[in-house]
Amino acid sequence: MPTAAQVKYLRELTGSGMMDVKAALAKAGDDPWLAMGFLRVKGLAVAIKKRLPDGTSRPATREEADAYWAREARVLAEEYRRDRPGLADDIARMGREESEEAARRAAGGLTHSAVGRWGIDRGWAMGEDFVLSGPGGLRVDLSGPEMRVTVADGAGERLLASGRPSEFRLSEEGDIVGPGIEDGLAAACALAPAPRL
Fold first, then answer.
1. CB distance 142 to 115 below 8 Å
2. pLDDT-derived band of residue 197, with 50, 70 and 90 as boundaries?
3. Would you say residue 2 has pLDDT above 80?
4. What's the pLDDT score for residue 166?
5. Are 105 and 112 in contact (CB under 8 A)?
6. Contact, 105 vs 111, CB < 8 A?
7. CA distance 26 to 11
8. Backbone dihedral region of 37: left (phi > 0), alpha (psi from -120 to 50 degrees) or beta?
9. DSSP assignment of 25-56
10. I need a labelling partner for 100 at 20 to 30 A (CA). Which of 5, 18, 50, 66 fits?
11. More confident residue, 108 or 33
12. Does the structure show a pLDDT above 50 at 144?
């Protein structure tokens, strides 16, 4: 059965839809190179003709056409195996990273939306660019895979903390703590001078 990491990686690599990738992996017995071959010939699979011994031709039957395109997919798979020998390792690494991320979340790590809700509940403004603006010039950028916590001071913006939201957690006091903001995100507001009125 195809893993989520295989499906995600091949979708990103080939630009194919999720159901197409799942079907190709199932047809290929979870061999990612062969699945790429099937995805490639899927776009090429036009009607083919069967050459007969007397020199004439007729449209191929469905079985004959499927056998032909399966052979083509295997040829492409061998090319992909030569060109991308580390593909299976890349997929395995992605699967491990996703498992570690899920384990951190299960252990109390946060998500982008949890951090956003935390700030909005405290009256912080959430911009269309997914940046939370808090008091004292504190900003939490949630637009990328990593959360970036910066504070504005006289010299510009200073980075306080960054990392995946799952590396941060809620303290018993309900504050967000993590690498670089062990005292808490709300407490970090005091690190910047109050804006001049």
1. yes
2. very low
3. no
4. 80
5. no
6. yes
7. 14
8. alpha
9. HHHTTT-HHHHHHHHHHHTT----EEEPTTS-
10. 18
11. 33
12. yes
User: What pLDDT, on the 0 to 100 scale, is given for residue 108?
Assistant: 62
The conformation of residue 195, written as its DSSP 8-state character, comes to: P
From CA 154, how far away is CA 116, in angstroms rounded?
26
Which of 129, 114, 128, 127 lies closest to 185 in space, CA to CA? Answer: 114
Q: What is the pLDDT of residues 41-60, one digit of tens each?
A: 775 655 566 666 666 777 77
User: What does the block give as tokens for 110?
Assistant: 């946060």
Among all chains, which residue has been given the structure tokens 């403004």?
125
CA nearest neighbour of 155 among 189, 192, 194: 192
Structure tokens at 146: 């990593």
- Residue 59: enclosing H or E segment and its boundaries? strand 57-59
Classify residue 138 by its DSSP letter.
Answer: E
Q: Is 86 exposed, middle or buried (0-12, 13-18, 19+ CB in 10 A)?
A: exposed
Amino acid at 195: P
For residue 35, give the nearest of 98, 93, 86, 80 by alpha carbon: 80
